[in-house]
Write a structure and sequence with these properties.
Blueprint lengths: L7 E4 L14 E6 L5 E8 L2 E10 L4 E7 L2 E9 L6 E7 L2 E9 L5 E7 L2 E9 L5 E7 L2 E9 L5 E7 L2 E9 L5 E7 L2 E9 L5 E7 L2 E2 L5 E4 L4 E5 L4 E8 L9 E2 L2 E9 L9 E6 L8 E2 L5 E5 L1 E2 L8 H7 L27 E3 L4 E9 L6 E5 L2 H7 L39 E9 L13 E8 L11 H12 L1
Parallel strand pairs: 20-32
Antiparallel strand pairs: 1-2, 2-3, 3-4, 4-5, 5-6, 6-7, 7-8, 8-9, 9-10, 10-11, 11-12, 12-13, 13-14, 14-15, 15-16, 16-17, 17-18, 17-22, 19-21, 21-29, 23-26, 23-28, 23-31, 24-30, 25-26, 27-29, 31-32
Protein name: MORN repeat containing 1
Organism: Bos mutus grunniens (Wild yak)
Keywords: Repeat
Length: about 475
């Protein structure tokens, strides 16, 4: 660092110095002609040399070693404008070598520097307490390094100009981990995530998102499944991408199976008109994609030695089976009973539910018989006809007693013939990457023992029956 050679000088040397010139040797104080610099310290041959302190008019200063008039060696530099202070090695007036920089805004850096910039290996603690250990280039995190973030996340891997880029591993505070390729600070390329929910995704990532992630649940089989009364089903479920391909890159998503019974049954399939549910059970009709509503209905698992519907219904008030806001399931706060073993985790995008069986109507569910008067009004039809669109004419009296042609049925040992719905929900907790898949539905018809496939009924006949029920 070069300075003007003229100014006021004082010296402790015994010989006389010329006024306005810096001291030649020993200890002295010199104020430079522009009055911006003031030096107090050791001199040799008319140059600052040894230990000294250089003061700046704005309040900045350097105190430490000088060599032949230059700031070189060990010292401390303070910048009044930024409030930063550096202590360590200097070369020709610049922080260079090893040192510690303390920042006025908070945080500090300890490590190697070159020409005043972070260069080489060091440790940076920012104002938020986040810590980085590793390589630097041109004042930026660059090369191999590891960082602990404010939220508890930890990253170890490659950096390029302050961005995570290349290969690295991220350990999230919630226990999730990602290992793979990065670009511009996000997952990009081949990588694997083990989510804290138990979901594992292995595959390609684009801009932080899995390229082959599941977006929907599909229940395989015909559009309407027919099953005999009292028999069990085996259902195959796939997690599918938008393209319809199976999301084989995904494991561990938790799915739950539940059932519903059509709220208003049709004469074509059942002797029951509808179910009246005790108010205390808090069952709200669920809208299905098949044009009708259903209410939750228990499943029975052979391994559980029969259903426990009352306990299941009562526990529904405390166990949430569907995240709030899922448009494909029951309203928030309304839940279905479920049987033991109703949850499965996907493997390579597939789940299989075996021995799925509908249980008998639980306590509090009162089956209301079809109205004989209604049949007479709209005309008798063969039992095999499909009277879709019929609406109930009575909600039924409390207690299930007979009133105005409406009658309840004695408790049954198995599910009544009629129309039901199977629902598969994504109950992964917490949701994988913050997203819950929409609920999948399958239309199920339970046929009376010995009954065959029901014939098709023209839509105009169904509309006529519906109008007659409303008259």
């Amino acid at each position: 660092m070069a300075f003007a050679s003229e100014g006021r000088a004082t010296s402790c040397l015994p010989h006389r110095e010329l006024p306005g010139r810096p001291p030649r040797d020993g200890y002295g104080v010199y104020v430079y002609p522009n009055s911006f610099f003031r030096y107090e310290g050791e001199w040799r041959g008319g140059k600052k040399h040894g230990r000294g302190k250089l003061l700046f008019k704005d309040g900045s200063y350097y105190e430490g070693d000088f060599v032949d008039g230059e700031i070189t060696g060990e010292g401390c530099r303070h910048w009044a404008l930024t409030g930063n202070t550096y202590t360590g090695q200097f070369v020709l007036g610049e922080p260079q070598g090893h040192g510690i920089m303390k920042y006025q805004a908070g945080g500090h850096y300890e490590g190697e520097l070159f020409r005043g910039l972070r260069e080489g290996h060091g440790c940076l603690v920012d104002a938020d307490g986040q810590v980085y250990w590793g390589s630097f280039h041109d004042n930026k995190r660059h090369g191999q390094g590891q960082m602990v973030f404010r939220n508890g996340d930890k990253y170890e891997g490659n950096w390029v100009r302050d961005q995570r880029q290349g290969h690295g591993m991220l350990r999230l505070a919630d226990g999730s981990t990602y290992e793979g390729q990065w670009h511009s600070g996000v997952f990009s390329g081949q990588g694997s995530m083990a989510h804290c929910s138990g979901v594992i995704y292995r595959g390609i990532w684009i801009n932080g998102h899995p390229m082959a992630q599941a977006t929907r649940i599909a229940i395989l089989g015909p559009e309407v499944m027919d099953t005999a009364q009292g028999s069990s089903l085996m259902l195959t479920v796939q997690l599918q991408q938008d393209s319809g391909e199976v999301a084989t890159s995904e494991d561990g998503r938790e799915l739950e199976i539940s059932a519903g019974v059509r709220y208003v049954q049709l004469p074509a399939y059942s002797e029951v008109s509808f179910f009246r549910v005790d108010d205390g059970l808090g069952q709200t009709p669920i809208q299905t994609p098949f044009g009708f509503q259903c209410i939750s209905y228990p499943l029975s698992s052979p391994a559980s030695e029969g259903p426990e519907p009352r306990a299941a219904l009562e526990s529904a008030s405390t166990d949430s089976l569907l995240p709030d806001g899922d448009p494909g399931g029951p309203p928030a706060g309304k839940h279905e009973p479920r049987c033991p073993g109703s949850r499965r985790r996907a493997e390579r995008g597939c789940v299989q539910f075996s021995d799925v069986r509908l249980g008998p109507p639980p306590p509090g569910y009162h089956a209301i018989l079809l109205l004989e008067g209604l049949h007479e009004k709209v005309g008798s039809r063969p039992r095999g006809q499909d009277h879709r669109g019929m609406t109930p004419v009575a909600q039924g009296p409390p207690g299930g007693s007979r009133l105005d042609g409406v009658a309840t049925v004695e408790p049954a040992a198995e599910a009544f013939p009629g129309e039901y719905v199977i629902m598969i929900r994504d109950v992964t907790t917490p949701p994988f990457l913050g997203h819950t898949l929409p609920t999948a539905f399958k239309h199920l018809r339970v046929l009376a023992r010995g009954a065959g496939q029901q014939p098709h009924v023209p839509r105009e006949d169904l509309e006529a029956l519906s109008r007659g029920a409303q008259d």
